[in-house]
Amino acid sequence: MFISQRTNSENTDFQELVGALDHYLAGVNGDTNDFFVQYNKIDAIRHVVVVYVENHAVACGAFKEYEPKVAEIKRMFVKPEFRGKGLGKQILNELTKWAKECDYDKCILETAKSMTDAVSLYKNYGFTMIPNYGQYIGNNTSVCFEIIV
Q1: How many CA atoms lie within 13 A of 98 on its CB side?
Q2: For the chain, which residues make up each domain, given as ranges?
Q3: Is the pLDDT of residue 74 over 70?
Q4: Of 38, 41, 93, 119, which sits with the fewest C-beta atoms within 10 Å of its C-beta?
């Protein structure tokens, strides 16, 4: 059974999962990784979800305010051995519900076009592709999405 816990970026399980995510993304992003790292700091994130199985952290996600009424989903990660079990959807359910509770109208996010499993997850969940926003404008390796909450 998978248990979701709301927490913040001070959670050491979240920090360890993000370390694994950063290692994974360094391989995916290659030479462009430094560009993305600057936008993925986790200090002072107040809205974090960690998923546990038998008291072991196996997945995470977070959101932070992008602008008033808009939350940006960040740091989505599922350990490889737990992928394909619906954890990404579980995290998105919790994050979008929480964002709505916090009075956000929509959530946005960015991922790499090459991360086809992530792109499929977001599309299947109901996110709509949007023009790249903010720092991702002009970055042809990125794809951005939004969903009304």
Answers
A1: 23
A2: 2-148
A3: yes
A4: 38
